[in-house]
Every structure is written in C-alpha cells, then in structure tokens.
Design goal:
The protein is of the alpha/beta class and about 375 residues long. It has eight helices and 15 strands. It starts with a helix and ends with a strand.
C-alpha cells in the first residue's frame, strides 16, 4: 500500500472516529435527563390554589423551563418540588407535552444554578399613602438588595401611579433603584413620582397616552403598563409586587380591570399584593366592593401570587419577610427532552400536586 493511500485512509478513519465521538458526546450531554415515563398519568388538581408560572428556552433537544417558586397558601411556606425518576407517579411535579408525560430533571436555584428574575414594584402614590410611603420605599430598597444576594440574577423596575402612571424606572440594578427612591427632595408619596433612567422620556410619553379613562388608583393598570413597556429579559421569571391602600378602580368602561390584567399576564407573571387599607377588608372605597372598586388582592389570586395585609401606616412592614422572597429563592430549573424535531407547536402543561396545594398551567409554546 502506497504512503499516499495510507494517508488518505488515516484521514477518513479519523473523520469517522471523531464524527462518531462528537455524536456520542451530544447524546451523552442529555443522559442526565430521565427518560419519559411509561403509563404515568398526572393527577388532576382539585384545589387549584396555586398557579405555576414559567418561561421556556430550547437548547437543541433540551428544553429549559424556568419555574418560579410557589408558596403553599395554607402554610405560606415555599413548596419544595421533587421528581422521582424510579417512581414518577410519586412526584409532586408533572409536565406533559402534547399529552405525553415527560421525564424531568429538577435543579433548585443556587449559586451554581443562577436563574433570572425581573421584579417590578407598582406603588400607589396617591395622597392617602402619605403615612406608609417612606416605609414602603425603604423596604423596597432592602428587599431588592436581599434578593440580589439570594443566588438569582435579578433586575428591578418601578411604577408609581395615582390614577394614571406618574412615575417609572425601567429595569435596572438594585443600586439604581435605591438611587431613584432616594432622590433629593423626593420624600413621602413623591418617592415613586417622576420618570428616570436612559429611556425616561419614552416612558413618560408612553404613560401620557396609556389608560386615559383611569382616574382612580388602579394597580392592574400599572402592571399592564410595565408589562407592555418595560425591558423584560427572555427566560426570566416576571414578578410584580403591588402596594396600595385602596380598591382597584377600572376605567369608566371597565377596560382596565382585574380580569383584563389576569387574562393578559396569567401564566407569564405573578402579582404579589401588600395592602395597607382599612382593617375591615370586606368593604371597599365608598362603602362596598364592586366592579368599580375591586379588591386589590384579586390580582394575586388569579396569578398565583401572595398577599399581605399590613397596618395603615406600614409600621409592621418587613418586606424581606414576605413569602415572595422564599418563593423566588425556591425557583427551579426544570429540564426535559423535546422529542420529535419535526413538531414546532407544543401544548405544555405543568401540574403541581401536593396534599395541601395543587394547580396547573397550560402553555402554547414554539421551540
């Protein structure tokens, strides 16, 4: 055999060897994900008192699901999720894709598994909030600093509202948020008044034409404003924390009510409520709750968020103690294999099922 022919054969064999080795490496890269279980039917939620909220990203055949932490409404403690690969029916989380139950790999958020979270504070800065405004602002700063050090990749935004949106800071760091809330001569309810940041003019122009029919305090409107105009990151959990002491007051045509907000962001974001209104929470402004004076914590009920009732002067507010902190710190990366590469449109259902809390969310996903 000539040296030239021998050289050609060696080159061909090397290509075959390294090609097979690469394919084997690609296969091995996904072997940490359990196979899809056979004959496993997820349970049907009956309590429906939690709502999974997730974002999706595809990495080849590997699907990464950023699942925001959930709080058991009975214990107010984060729900610890687990998947039992040897006995999938004994798990408390299930994911189906076009009706097929998937094998799951769960990794809790940590310094080794840094998940993204985008957190926006929507703050009622009407005159009735004068007692609690400074306490709320100071608590937001402490909360943001604590969350930034929790193992999450967090950015923060803020919306102030009194009828229309009258203040906003787009997504930024905890330090920049602190600067915004501690501006010189901006005290009390003015702490969240005014537009700041590199896109301040754009935000102000957007606010001037947003929800023109809203005259009363309306946290749902503030959430929808941030949802539409803020710079949300792909793959990040979306979280709102709303502070108010009054009812949610839709526009005269009820176009900016809680139901619209829930239909718009349900499954995409959670809203947590901090309410410092009258101790008698069975009554709204002007005497009774109604479709024009909605309970503000209904925004949390429909999005799987938590709610906290505090004193009217917010003297008992410790934001870092709220269940939302434990929930975010208890977020999970959930991974599974897509399967067929020919299908692009998927119906993905996430089911949480424990003895005291259960619920599900279905997503239409392209990946």
């Amino acid at each position: 055999m000539s040296k030239k022919l021998l050289l050609i054969l060696l080159v061909v064999m090397s290509l075959i060897f390294f090609g097979c080795d690469k394919a084997e490496d690609d296969d091995n890269s996904n072997k940490d994900i359990p196979a899809d279980p056979v004959n496993v039917t997820p349970p049907n939620p009956t309590k429906n008192n939690v709502q999974p909220t997730a974002t999706f990203q595809a990495q080849g055949e590997r699907i990464k699901l950023n699942l925001q932490g959930l709080v058991d409404p009975n214990t107010l403690q984060p729900i610890t999720l687990f998947y039992n690969a040897s006995n999938p029916s004994g798990s408390n989380i299930f994911v189906t894709q076009n009706g097929v139950t998937k094998g799951l790999l769960l990794t809790k958020v940590s310094t080794g598994n840094v998940l993204k979270a985008d957190v926006v504070f929507t703050v009622d800065n009407s005159g009735s909030m004068w007692e609690e405004a400074d306490v709320v602002a100071n608590n937001i700063v402490s909360f943001a600093q604590a969350l930034a050090a929790s193992g999450l990749d967090v950015q923060f935004g803020c919306v102030g509202y009194d009828g229309p949106v009258n203040g906003a800071l787009n997504m930024t760091t905890s330090a920049s948020l602190s600067t915004y809330l501690n501006r010189t001569d901006y005290t009390g309810t003015f702490r969240t008044f005014g537009f700041e940041g590199p896109d301040a003019t754009t935000l102000q122009n957007s606010a001037s034409g947003f929800a023109p029919g809203v005259w009363g305090e309306n946290g749902a409107m503030a959430v929808l404003y941030a949802h539409q105009y803020f710079a949300w990151r792909a793959g990040a959990s979306r979280v709102f924390i709303n502070f108010t002491d009054e009812s949610t007051q839709p526009a005269s045509d009820l176009s900016f009510n809680t139901a619209q907000m829930c239909n718009t962001i349900g499954g995409l974001a959670t809203v947590h409520t901090v309410y410092s209104g009258p101790a008698d929470t069975t009554r709204g402004l002007n005497g009774a709750w109604s479709d024009r004076h909605e309970r503000p914590w209904l925004m949390s009920d429909c999005t799987g968020g938590t709610k906290k009732f505090i004193a009217q002067d917010a003297s008992d507010l410790v934001l870092t103690d709220l269940p939302v902190v434990g929930a975010l710190s208890n977020s999970y990366l959930v991974e599974y294999l897509k399967g067929s590469s020919e299908v692009q449109d998927w119906l993905v259902k996430i089911i949480i099922f424990t003895s005291t809390a259960d619920g599900s969310t279905t997503y239409s996903v392209k990946y």
